[in-house]
Write a structure and sequence with these properties.
282 residues
Length: 282
């Protein structure tokens, strides 16, 4: 409960700062809220779902003290979450303006509001991978019957968020609040990972470095192709249709790049889809 309260206090603090129009800019509260909603969508779909689904298996391994299996499961879930959240983060950064435009730009939500929200969204998205990894790592501690460590590190992250938010709101306005949250989440995820390494007495970060590099290359190719496609399509299609085409194309590019670069999770997904397509009809 306290761990959840720490996050809510962070949200409340950022909202209070955003309400200071002279510092954050007019409409900052709305921009912060809408940008956070867009980031929460992939976070809920991938990270929260994966963390909840893996908790029973992690708890079972912890109960019988099978720390090798526990470690393997944590690494597998982290790789899966990174594989899903990394392209989502890059997509939100590259396509921030069209995403906000298609979702919200109508009525009182004008072009200026779109640009402010898109700027906030792109800075929020820089921490998406950390938000996702933090969900999984906190669950790993819960499986080990350790609730104090993630709560203590969450409180530490809150303090960092407060300091950075106050420091960045001046030069970056509402975007500074989003960046402060992203940087604090990066610190929190790294600290959780290091603490879990100490608890398991085995390295985890080094095991993730190789897969993360390959995923990053694939996601970067996807981001570049999305940016190029959005510009090339121009006004040929309505904005909503164009955005859908670009996102689907980006998913295809990411999948193909992942297979070529031998991203294990992507290859497994392709094999699963291939088996499903070849199942006899009932």
């Amino acid at each position: 409960l306290f761990g959840a309260a720490v996050y809510q206090v962070s949200v409340l603090f950022n909202t209070v700062l955003a309400s200071l129009g002279a510092l954050a800019g007019d409409g900052a509260v709305a921009a912060l809220y809408f940008a956070n909603r867009l980031v929460q969508l992939p976070l809920a779909l991938f990270a929260t779902a994966s963390a909840q689904a893996s908790l029973p298996e992690l708890s079972e391994h912890a109960a019988v003290r099978d720390l090798q299996a526990f470690r393997s499961t944590v690494l597998a879930v982290l790789r899966m979450v990174l594989c899903e959240s990394l392209p989502a983060a890059i997509g939100l950064v590259v396509l921030a303006v069209p995403i906000v435009q298609v979702c919200f730009e109508r009525g009182a939500f004008d072009r200026a509001a779109t640009l402010m929200t898109a700027h906030t969204l792109s800075l929020f998205a820089l921490g998406l991978v950390a938000y996702a990894a933090g969900k999984v790592l906190a669950g790993a501690f819960y499986a080990l019957h350790d609730t104090r460590t993630p709560v203590a590190l969450a409180a530490e992250s809150l303090l960092v968020n407060v300091v950075l938010a106050v420091a960045l709101i001046g030069p970056l306005r509402v975007g500074g609040l989003a960046l402060a949250t992203a940087l604090a989440s990066l610190l929190n995820a790294w600290r959780l990972l290091r603490k879990l390494e100490q608890r398991l007495k085995t390295p985890l970060a080094s095991e993730l470095a190789g897969p993360l590099l390959r995923m990053s290359v694939a996601a970067s190719l996807m981001g570049w192709s999305c940016w190029l496609a959005w510009g090339e399509l121009g006004s040929v299609l309505p904005a909503a249709v164009r955005l859908l085409v670009v996102i689907v194309g980006g998913i295809i590019v990411y999948g193909a790049s992942g297979v070529v670069l031998r991203v294990e999770e992507m290859s497994s997904a392709v094999r699963w889809l291939t088996r499903r397509c070849h199942l006899p009809s009932s």
